[in-house]
Amino acid sequence: MTSDTNFDTLGLKDARWMLSWQQHGSTATNGSSRSTRLELMSSRSTPTTKKNWVPASKQAVTVSYFFDSTRNSYRIISVDGSKVIINSTITPNMTFTKTSQKFGQWADSRANTVFGLGFASEQQLSKFAEKFQEVKESAKLARDKSQEKGETMSNHSQESGRETPSNTQPSSINGTDDEKISHVGPEAAVLKTENERLKSAVEQSNTNAKKWETELQTLRENNARLVDALQESSANVESWKKQLSTCKEESDALRSKIAELEAQCNEANQEKQKNAQLSARVKELEIELQDKETIMHSHNASFLP
Questions:
Q1: What is the residue range of 93's domain?
Q2: Coiled-coil ranges per the record (predicted)?
């Protein structure tokens, strides 16, 4: 079985469970990688028994279509952690039935299980039904090719048997032990390969979960640092607001003091002007007094003998 994987999904957005259609081998077609969410239910009963639907998983799971080139068959697989939820081989006589506008189901008699899917819309349900029919037709073609190949090999074996004398010992009705082993061997090999693939998928899921957990922890630490930085910035802003308020108060006080000093300066200037005026008046009076004294001396001198 090849490891190449191509996803061909519907691109649905608003249902509950994750579904991806995955094909392996040469029959895989290139398609856009899209995802859809569906509600996955199962009933552990015979296909004809009516039971209440119960969730097949408590969390979102991936449901995958793939082509098993070893067994020349198509399967639907779903794994939730280490638990295999769906391992259904699609057969040509299998039918996907629309039981309501948003719900459909198919019965797997081999797995003794009826699987149901709930969709967000009738259009999404129709798309899934079309894909199921497409895969079922592919399964029919694969079976027909396998039968043709088997008939060709059988005819070739019969012709070889007629041409070559048989020297083998008679076998029992159920076949010899070697024949039993030859039939069981490929089946066991396929199951082993499938188990290894599922184990690898589980390990990959666990690895991804650990990676996402580490990334989540890193994001939490970064968020915590950002919260601390934001709180520190908020504290600094409050401190700056207080300092600004203090500066404004000091500025207002200085403005008041300047106004007061300017008023005092105006009063001093007025006093200086008054003093200058008084000094000038005093000088004028002194001059007048001197003039009067001079006149008096002159007058007195004129009366002397």
A1: 6-158+194-203
A2: 188-295
